[in-house]
Design goal:
The structure is a homodimer of 146-residue chains. Chain A has 146 residues and is mainly alpha-helical. The first copy, chain A, has helices spanning 8-12, 25-32, 36-44, 61-75, 80-92, 98-145, and strands at residues 51-53, 56-58. Helix content of chain A is 67%, strand content 4%. The longest helix of chain A has 48 residues, at 98-145. Chain A folds into 2 domains: 1-76, Multidrug-efflux Transporter Regulator, Chain: A, Domain 2 (Orthogonal Bundle); 96-146. The N and C termini of chain A lie far apart (68 Å). The interface between A and B is large, with 44 and 43 residues. Chain A binds a DNA duplex (30 and 30 nucleotides) through residues 24-26, 35-38, 40-41, 45, 54-57, 74, 79-81.
DNA sequence: CAACCACTTTACGTTAACGTCAACGTCGTC
DNA sequence: GACGACGTTGACGTTAACGTAAAGTGGTTG
């Protein structure tokens, strides 16, 4: 319970406790269409902390979720450092002091305004795309006509 | 009419024809909170093509709009190369051949699905943030209570 | 047992998007 | 006419996020 919540939904719905599977680095890499190198790099950057059986890494559900969140964060333009910051604070939460927690709330508020702007940006960008497409189709229609 | 449409809205509403102002590189930089270096770099990358009076660059409304679109694109995670691609095709539109236009439509569709996924990512991310915040507030409350 | 996988570490290479610094020209003004 | 603010080009530096190549380890399969 001290890490990112894999079961957020499976608590609400009645799904199985999700088989206690593990994954190799290669499996995980194929699942998310990244290279093993990328996954190792994320570990080095403090975003993942898989188990070790001897030399080789063993990933659990928790790690898979973290990777998923990381990649989602990246698609939204967050740096790995930003993502790590949130993950670290989240992990430190249960025994966190008040100052740390307030800092976390600040960061969250920050991300939230960021998301809001992104939503606005997307809306505006979609309009631009609409506009460009309409014009392109007009020109095309004229070409077809002649 | 052969460039990005500054007046997309001012045609629809009744706003003034927007003073035919010009801007220095420094003005533009302050407006958008970037450095002049950045603006020169964008020009070098083919995203801007300001007028020249002797050595010095002179930016018009058209350039300001392009810069705005470029920065918006960046916030959405597009590379400068991608942004340039769209701008170039847009500029080439009026006398574009059918193949070019179809290619443009493809790119647009591509960006569109990208936007859709971003929207979904944002929704999911917002839920995560909500979840984290709730937990953080719970822990805080427990601390205040004791 | 050899030949293949899949995995590991170490280390150097690469790309995008600028930052920074030097060296210079051009105003306005004190 | 020196000074400061702003502009220019050119070149090298920097950071993030991996890619890539070398060299080794550990299982299993023909």
């Amino acid at each position: 319970m001290s890490t990112l919540n894999t079961e957020a939904t499976s608590v609400a719905n009645g799904s199985l406790p999700r088989q206690r599977r593990t994954y190799s680095i290669g499996e995980l890499a194929r699942m998310f269409e990244v290279t093993p190198r990328t996954i190792r790099f994320y570990e080095q950057e403090g975003l993942l902390a898989p188990e070790r059986r001897g030399q080789t890494r063993i990933y659990h559900e928790k790690d898979r979720v973290r990777l998923k969140l990381t990649l989602r964060g990246k698609r939204l333009g967050f740096s790995l450092a930003e993502i790590r910051e949130v993950i670290e604070m989240y992990d430190a939460m249960p025994d966190g002091n008040a100052r740390q927690l307030k800092r976390l709330l600040e960061i969250l508020a920050d991300k939230r305004t960021n998301m809001e702007r992104q939503l606005e940006d997307i809306r505006l960008m979609q309009r631009e795309l609409d506009d460009v497409e309409v014009r392109a189709r007009e020109v095309l229609a004229r070409l077809d006509q002649d």
